[in-house]
Q: What sequence folds into this?
């Protein structure tokens, strides 16, 4: 059995002009990408905080390699399959910033730990025991971060007593397991729209993490890492004096949801580096249709935004995106050439059949996961095409 | 360059019990699938209407083969890449029910037409001319359906004059192109919630298609096919006396959005055959967390529904689905074993770490496209695992 298909051919080649990219395609503006990486890494470095760049945003080892070359200590990811992909591509320091409980997945994780520096999060003693068994069987050793729920309301223990109880279970499994510290990730805080709300949420998270860390240390446990913080809040974690490591992923690519946050004077500005290129496949009276839809761009955080002056997205279906003039009631040429009602300013940039457009996605992570390739461009030329090696690696 | 990854290992093997499926995984209840196929094909057959089963819903040739074995005349699909995948898997009659305008894609389409019976939709004379050139170059012949917008407001010409004008362009390109008929698909009518609204919308679409067909015939053009109609409305197209062929796809799998339609006495009932299996990865006070999220189930038509009595979906993020008890304010055991507030009826089915759950997706097409494999089961055992061969084939 094989899952290979004709979908796997790359949509462009280095040197191609942008208008020759086969669409729909995921595209990355390298100038913006490099500026984002430089800005965030400099910000964290100046505050003595390590960057562990999250691979779940892009699932692309080539992007991770560039983040590591720019100072990241390694990657984090959410899934064993992602970790395997990154390890296969030569990434040597991986944190699975998530709970793994399935025995078969724990066996894969333990085998992986023989090849790379590996850590994983825990929030349940049964899972710690199962992880320890897998490590003993594989002859491997894994670092553990106890996940503390600092406001996300998803995984993670909620009381300091539970943190200490889990630390005891981890310690009892030494030397197979070693307590590295705490995972204190507040994902939902990143999407609070005001700078003040984000700042307050992370201040509370940092206080909670500091209490857990200090209690662990008082009880004689090592806890040298407090890891957490993503694109929407990393400046607050970096300034907290508590977090030792941040885990941003989207910062390198960016999306509309993060751009909707009120800017924060303490946070470096990030540019929209990632987009989805589509082509005009139908031009009708009053609208046009692009050749990509829900299978090319995720709409869980709202529809994508079109980079085409005077036009906006009207709707997205499986394989189509309908676009319309921003000004209500104006018309584009019908097939018979009639142009009644088209405002003069629009006439200079009416879409033509086959014309390429780029859309900024509402949410980058699930959008990247729809594509097998990242077309990296600089200016008006394709510079490289990278496989999204861990596309679909959610197991 | 290769886009292969560790993600491509199948999540189960034939004979496995359901509790051993690696998650998240796309699962298909074969009894329900076969019942849906039998019910719809019998309904259409009794009315003398052909079924051209839409492959965009599942992108899986093995499912198409079973639909054809059950009487479908062939498949339709939206993309050249899908058509290539189906042809590669041995499907011999394919309609690309969509406009293709890119010259490179038209070249691929023409090459494919040398191997299979192929048709494609058009709505612009420039695209017809480009298609004809590609066919001449390839020494191929392609059938053409003129797409008439019958209410969808997306692709397709809107006037009868345009239909006739396009027919002339197609005729001028004979023998490379041959006019097969009309594409008259009203996608949005399928999601109108009342049976009356759907019936009225398709009646109007059929009148419009009949007028175009009759006008073409009066002008001396052949037009023997009127194709259209999907899962939400196929009984109306089949009863219209105008449509010769219906194009349902979701009917074999089903999703929450179609189930939200008011039932219609004229339409055979369809069962939920497709689901996404996930495992419980964290059990907290008041909620539990499943190990799949936006990268395993599409939420464009709303969140998935959980098949676990007493529980519902609270939220879906990239790799997590948080579930909670249906009764507000009730609690599930915290890690310390406290059970305060749990209503007695819930105690018998509290989720356990590692427990499998199945979720019914809001929208099947983009959900299938997130997976490399369909795990087909019957009763409590896996019967087969099929590749989603054209997963990602949106180019």
A:
């Amino acid at each position: 059995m094989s899952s290979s298909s004709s979908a796997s051919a790359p949509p462009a080649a280095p040197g191609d002009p942008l208008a020759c990219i086969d669409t729909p395609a995921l595209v990355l503006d390298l100038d913006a990408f490099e500026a984002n990486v430089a800005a965030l890494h400099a910000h964290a470095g100046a505050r003595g905080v390590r960057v562990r760049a999250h691979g779940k945003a892009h699932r692309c080892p080539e992007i991770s390699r560039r983040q590591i070359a720019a100072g990241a200590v390694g990657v984090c990811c959410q899934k064993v399959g992602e970790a395997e992909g990154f390890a296969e591509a030569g990434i040597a320091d991986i944190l699975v910033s998530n709970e793994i409980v399935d025995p078969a997945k724990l066996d894969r994780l333990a085998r992986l730990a023989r090849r790379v520096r590996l850590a994983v999060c825990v929030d349940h003693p049964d899972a710690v025991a199962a992880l320890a068994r897998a490590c003993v069987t594989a002859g491997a050793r894994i670092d553990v971060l106890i996940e503390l729920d600092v406001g996300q309301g998803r995984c993670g223990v909620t009381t300091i007593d539970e943190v200490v109880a889990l630390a005891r279970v981890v310690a009892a499994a030494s030397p197979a397991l070693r307590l590295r510290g705490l995972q204190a990730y507040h994902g939902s805080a990143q999407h609070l729209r005001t700078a003040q709300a984000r700042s307050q949420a992370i201040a509370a998270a940092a206080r909670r993490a500091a209490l857990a860390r200090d209690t662990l240390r008082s009880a004689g446990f090592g806890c040298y890492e407090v890891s957490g913080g993503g694109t929407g809040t990393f400046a607050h974690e970096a300034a907290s004096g508590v977090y030792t490591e941040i885990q941003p992923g989207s910062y390198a690519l960016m999306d509309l949801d993060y751009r909707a946050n009120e800017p924060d004077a303490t946070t470096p500005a990030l540019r929209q580096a990632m987009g989805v290129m589509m082509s005009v496949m139908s031009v009708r009276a009053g609208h046009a249709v692009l050749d990509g839809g829900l299978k090319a761009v995720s709409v869980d955080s709202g529809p994508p935004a079109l980079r085409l002056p005077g036009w906006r997205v009207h709707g997205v279906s499986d394989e189509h995106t309908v676009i319309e003039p921003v000004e209500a009631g104006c018309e584009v040429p019908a097939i018979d050439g009639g142009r009644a009602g088209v405002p003069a300013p629009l006439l200079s940039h009416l879409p033509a059949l086959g014309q390429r457009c780029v859309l900024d996605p509402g949410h980058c992570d699930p959008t990247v996961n729809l594509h097998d390739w990242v077309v990296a461009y600089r200016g008006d030329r394709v510079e490289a095409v990278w496989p999204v090696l861990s596309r679909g690696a959610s197991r």
In short: Chain A touches chain B through 91 residues (CB under 8 Å). The longest helix of chain A spans residues 195-218.
